[in-house]
Amino acid sequence: HLAIDHLTKIYERGKVLALDDVSFSVDKGEFLVLIGLSGSGKSTLLRCINRLIEPTSGRVFLDGTELTALPQRELRRWRRKIGMIFQQFNLVKRSTVLANVLAGRLGYVPTARTLLGRFPREDLERARRALERVGLLEKMFVRADQLSGGQQQRVGIARALMQEPELLLADEPVSALDPATSHSILKYLEQMNRQDGVTVLCALHFLSLARRYGTRIIALKGGRIVFEGSPSEI
Amino acid sequence: HLAIDHLTKIYERGKVLALDDVSFSVDKGEFLVLIGLSGSGKSTLLRCINRLIEPTSGRVFLDGTELTALPQRELRRWRRKIGMIFQQFNLVKRSTVLANVLAGRLGYVPTARTLLGRFPREDLERARRALERVGLLEKMFVRADQLSGGQQQRVGIARALMQEPELLLADEPVSALDPATSHSILKYLEQMNRQDGVTVLCALHFLSLARRYGTRIIALKGGRIVFEGSPSEI
Ligand SMILES: Nc1ncnc2c1ncn2[C@@H]1O[C@H](COP(=O)(O)OP(=O)(O)OP(=O)(O)O)[C@@H](O)[C@H]1O
Ligand SMILES: Nc1ncnc2c1ncn2[C@@H]1O[C@H](COP(=O)(O)OP(=O)(O)OP(=O)(O)O)[C@@H](O)[C@H]1O
Ligand SMILES: [Mg+2]
Ligand SMILES: [Mg+2]
Q: Which of A33, B59, B107, B231 is 20 to 30 Å apart from A66, CA to CA?
C-alpha cells in the first residue's frame, strides 16, 4: 500500500539532518505508530509522505505510484486519498467550525470561507456526522478561535475524516486532549482502520497508547529508525 | 499569595458559561494542578488570573492587591511577576529562538524583533541558561518556525523562565512533549517551585503527572470546581 524508500531530509537552514535514510513499507489496513523524542523526525516523515515538505532524496510510493515523482497537479489529486491531522491543528481561525470541517472535502486547501455556499447537501450531512463523532456538534457555528485547545484539535480531526481517505497521516492527534477524550478519538480512528480499511500512520508520544492502538511500531531517534516491530516487543 | 473570589466568565459570543462561581486560594510556594476534560475551563481560569481575558464577575487578588481592579498601566507592572506558558506556545514564528526567549524579559509583549540590540549582557546570559535548561541551546539562532512542535513548546517555557516570576501560570506545558522530555521539564518547574519558592498553577491532562508533581489538585467540570484536595485523595 505505502512504501518509503531511502528517505532523507536535510533542512537547508541550519543544515539539520531531520531524516536519515529511512525505509519501510506499510500494508493496507495497518495502524502503524511512530514514536520518538521531541525533534526525532516524526512530523518531518509524515510531511514528506504527502510532500508538504520535499524530501532531499529517496522515494515514496502509494499503491505503486511514485508520489515523489508526481507533478503538482497530479499530486493534488492523489492527496485527496491521504487525510492529514496536523500537529498544530492548522485551522482557519476566523472561519466557523463547520467551514473548517467542510474544507476537508477540498483536500488540504482551507479556503472554506469563499466556498461555503457551494457544498452539496450530503457534504453538510457528512460534516454533521464528523462533528458528532468528535463530540463537537454544538459548536458547529462557532468560530474556530473561540474554542479551547482540545476542541480545536478535534475540529482538525473531523476535517480529515471528511476526506474519507485511504491513508490517514495523524501527527500527535490527541496531544491537546485529556485521557478520556483521547481514547474516544483513537477508538474512532481504530474503527475507521478496522471497519473501513483505512491505513493509519500515527505519531504518538505515549508508549501506552502506541501499544493499545498500534498494529506495528516504528521508533525514530535523530532521524533514523531504531526499532521496528510489534507493540508487544517494545 | 493568590486568592480567586467568585470568578465567573461568560464568553459573549455563543453565551458560553466557561467559569461558574470559582473560588479558591493558593499559598506561596504551592504547586497547584488544574485538571479537567477538554473544554472544562482550565485555560479560561488561567487567563482570567492575569487578565488576558476579562472575567464577567468576581475578583482576583495577588499579595493582597486586587488584580481585577488595576488600570492597564499598573496591570502591566504586576504581570512582570506572573510568568505564563501558553497552551499554543504564542511564539513570534519569524523571530529566532533567542529573540523569543529574550522577550520574556518584557513581560508578555513579544516585540523582541525590534528590541534585540538593547538587551544587557546579563539577559543574554540568562537566555543561554534558560535554553540549556530546556535542552535547546544548539537551536538558539534558529527561527521559531523551523522547530518541531515539542521544541517550540520548550521555547515558550524558556521565555516564561526569563521573567523569574513569583507566580507561574502553566497551561498544559508538556502537551507536545514525549514522556521523558515532559518529566525533565516538570522536574525543573518543581525545582523552581521548591528552591526559588515560585508558586505554580499548572493545567495538566494526566492524573499521573498531577499526582507526581502537584501539592494540591483542583478538578474543573463545565466551569465549576468538582474536586479540591491533595493528590492522594483523587
Ligand atoms: N474566545 C472564546 N469565545 C467563546 N467561547 C470560548 C472561547 N474560548 C473558550 N471558549 C469556550 O469556553 C469553554 C472553556 O474553554 P477553555 O479553553 O477554558 O477549556 P480548557 O479546559 O482549557 O480545554 P482544553 O483541555 O481543550 O484546552 C469551552 O466550551 C470553549 O468552547
Ligand atoms: N522548517 C524547518 N527548518 C529547519 N529545521 C527544522 C524544520 N522543521 C523541523 N526541523 C528540525 O528537524 C528535526 C526534526 O523535527 P520534527 O518536527 O520532524 O520532529 P518531531 O519528531 O515531530 O518532534 P516533536 O515531537 O517535538 O513534534 C528537529 O531537529 C527540528 O529542529
Ligand atoms: Mg512533531
Ligand atoms: Mg486549554
A: A33
* Amino acid (one-letter) located at A93: K
Provide the pLDDT confidence category of residue B116 given band limits of 50, 70 and 90.
Answer: low
Pocket test for ligand 2, best of A13, A16, A33, A221 (most atoms within 8 A of CB): A16
Q: Which letter, b or e, does each residue of B157-172 get, where b requires 16 or more Cβ atoms within 10 Å of its Cβ?
A: bbbbbbbbbbbbbbbb
Instruction: Kindly tell me the sign of the dihedral angle through the C-alpha atoms of A116, A122, A127, A128.
Output: positive
pLDDT value for B65: 97
DSSP at A93: T
Q: SS3 of A189, please?
A: helix
Computed over every residue of chain B, the mean pLDDT equals 92
Residue of minimum CA distance from atom 17 in ligand 2: B148
Interchain pair A149, B180: CB under 8 A: no
Q: Which position has the grid cell 468538582? A: B226
Mutational test site, ligand 2, from B97, B137, B151, max ligand atoms within 8 Å of CB: B151
| Smallest-distance ligand from the CA of A9 | 2
What pLDDT, on the 0 to 100 scale, is given for residue B104?
A: 87
A145 CA from centroid of ligand 1 (Å): 10
User: Which atom of ligand 1 is nearest to A153's Cα?
Assistant: 26
pLDDT at residue A105 in the model: 83
Whether the CB-CB separation of B45 and B228 falls below 8 Å is answered with no
Say how many Å lie between the first and final Cα of chain A, rounded.
Answer: 24
3-state secondary structure of B97: helix
Using an 8 Å CB-CB cutoff, list chain A residues near B205: 177-179
Nearest alpha carbon, ligand 1 atom 28:
B39
Residue with cell 526525532: A40
Residue length, chain B?
Answer: 234
Q: How deeply is B27 buried, as exposed, middle or buried, from its count of CB atoms within 10 A (0-12, 13-18, 19+)?
A: exposed
Q: Do B150 and A38 touch (CB under 8 A)?
A: yes
d(CA B207, CA B190): 16
* Average pLDDT of span A72-77: 92
Task: Tell me which DSSP letter residue B27 carries.
Answer: -
Query: Residue written as cell 463537537?
Result: A136
